Amino acid sequence: MPDRDLPTRPASFPLRPARMHEVEGAGRRVFALYQALHHPGPLFWFLRAHEQGVPFLWGLPPGIAARLYLVHAASEADLLWTVEEALRSPAAGLVVAEPQEPLSLTAGRRMQLAAEAGRTTAIMLIRQGAGCNAGETRWHCRPLPSSRGQALHEWRLLRDKRGVPKAWVLDWNGRGPDVAILSEATADV
């Protein structure tokens, strides 16, 4: 739990709805789980069939496992197709995908259009530098070392079509929606 002396804020990092957002870095799955806590409804998580390190149901934040649908795609083309179909459905609360290959501008634009059509938010967990210009935002997330038993993270907004890059250091342990913001600054990208 964040320190009681530090201010906590719910939904400190809201993503614009009906848009595709890209997240890279070692902490990208943590960022996606944080967002899942703030997006009601079914959560669809798409991975390649051979992907290791799938989300462990008992280790997820409260309320996530009951609404999580893990989808394993046989190929990259299947993954992108199933993500696009899920995004077009207004029933999905949040769509998270882990493509193995860089997104082409065409694929990224298709995801963006599908998110708009279904009014669904998409998070693409990409490899470092494997994004495209179609996404609304691009984030770099990484865990930070801590000597006090905190769960420290750095979340850096690298690109935002409607804003300026920023960076935050925060304490979030994954047990609830609140986060302690330790620092916030305009990012040098």
TrEMBL record:
It comes from the Bacteria. This is ImuA family protein.
